[in-house]
Amino acid sequence: MIHDDKRYMALALTLGRRGQGLCWPNPAVGCVIVKDGRIVGRGTTAPGGRPHAEPQALTQAGAAALGATVYVTLEPCSHYGKTPPCAEALIKAGVARVVVALRDNDPRVSGRGLKMLEDAGIDVTTGVLADEAAWDLKGFFLKTDAGRPFVTLKLAMTLDGRIATATGESKWITGPEARRRVHAQRANHDAVLVGGGTARADDPSLTVRDMGIAHQPVRVVASRRLDLPMDSVLAKTARDVPVWLVHGPDALEARKTSWSVAGATLLPCDLNGAQLDPGALLTALGAQGLTRVFCEGGGSLAASLLQAGLVDQLIVFTAGLALGAEGHPGIGALGVQKMAEAPRLKLATQERVGDDIMSVWRRP
């Protein structure tokens, strides 16, 4: 039974990951329904967060749900929102057992969904593959508990940690395989974030391309003064794919007006010294419902997030070339005086991607 529980929960987790980047502010949940050793229903939180995974799996299962076992990566909801509670739907379907990876931390649900199921005579098991589920759903939990999204910082650097030549040239440090992988990583986050310097220097589109998907992440630029060119790709396409601009209190009204007219959403943010406060920046994004943010630099923004301990996952693509000390560093000044003060992450995985190396580091 334990082996089967883990096997089916692993499948539910895989299904849940398909919703990452699509269903914010809701969590990306997966559900599998099993009857007599056969999978009769599967579900993933739908784009936009509705419907939830459980009712989709129940619809697929139909009458076979009676007496079945349900595997779901997060506690079924117990409150009435835009849709009836998933716990109630499971009870009405007559399922015999529900296996849950994690209890929900949303105070409207936490423990109540499990109690509803138990009170209805359903056998409930919790904690199956809980660590894996906790990592997949960390953005949702962070938004609920800390008011901020999960942050992945991605850096594409040379062997000596540079992201551009002395003249600012940066295309291309890594190869096509690594760049394609980055597009896939953008796709499973709610938003792509860059600093104003990167937006000015690279004129990026920040979209997902050549992946065969219809949705696009929100494009976010952190720019204290909003001194961004109005003839940029972002300005020209702000009505096609959302552009959010996080700015300081000293941004000129004329610039705010220009970007609003272009179709961008403006989010004010407090300062920390001469820069936008990284914690306030993420809180502003969390207040908009974002659960997962993919930050692509530049160096100053990367440094501020690392220094504040706000990077949950660091993905580094390392290419086999060197630009020397005159090149632009991937991470700006951190003010580290002692080794103990340096941000330290733990290596999770490392693999070859084309001619480059991708290292994934996580905050302990």
From TrEMBL:
E.C. number: 3.5.4.26, 1.1.1.193
Keyword vocabulary terms for this entry: Hydrolase, Metal-binding, Multifunctional enzyme, NADP, Oxidoreductase, Riboflavin biosynthesis, Zinc
The keyword Methyltransferase is annotated on this UniProt entry: no
Annotated GO MF terms: 5-amino-6-(5-phosphoribosylamino)uracil reductase activity; diaminohydroxyphosphoribosylaminopyrimidine deaminase activity
Pfam families xref list: dCMP_cyt_deam_1 (PF00383), RibD_C (PF01872)
Entry's cofactor comment: Binds 1 zinc ion.
Cofactor: Zn(2+)
The CMP/dCMP-type deaminase domain, residue ranges: 3-125
Gene3D superfamilies for the chain: Cytidine Deaminase, domain 2, Dihydrofolate Reductase, subunit A
Taxonomic superkingdom: Bacteria
Residue intervals passing through the bilayer: none
Pathway(s) of this molecule: Cofactor biosynthesis; riboflavin biosynthesis; 5-amino-6-(D-ribitylamino)uracil from GTP: step 3/4; Cofactor biosynthesis; riboflavin biosynthesis; 5-amino-6-(D-ribitylamino)uracil from GTP: step 2/4
Catalytic reaction annotation: 5-amino-6-(5-phospho-D-ribitylamino)uracil + NADP(+) = 5-amino-6-(5-phospho-D-ribosylamino)uracil + NADPH + H(+); 2,5-diamino-6-hydroxy-4-(5-phosphoribosylamino)-pyrimidine + H2O + H(+) = 5-amino-6-(5-phospho-D-ribosylamino)uracil + NH4(+)
NCBIfam families: eubact_ribD, ribD_Cterm
Similarity remark: In the C-terminal section; belongs to the HTP reductase family.
Function: Converts 2,5-diamino-6-(ribosylamino)-4(3h)-pyrimidinone 5'-phosphate into 5-amino-6-(ribosylamino)-2,4(1h,3h)-pyrimidinedione 5'-phosphate.
Protein name (record): Riboflavin biosynthesis protein RibD
Organism listed in the record: Cognatishimia coralii
Taxonomy of the source species: Bacteria, Pseudomonadati, Pseudomonadota, Alphaproteobacteria, Rhodobacterales
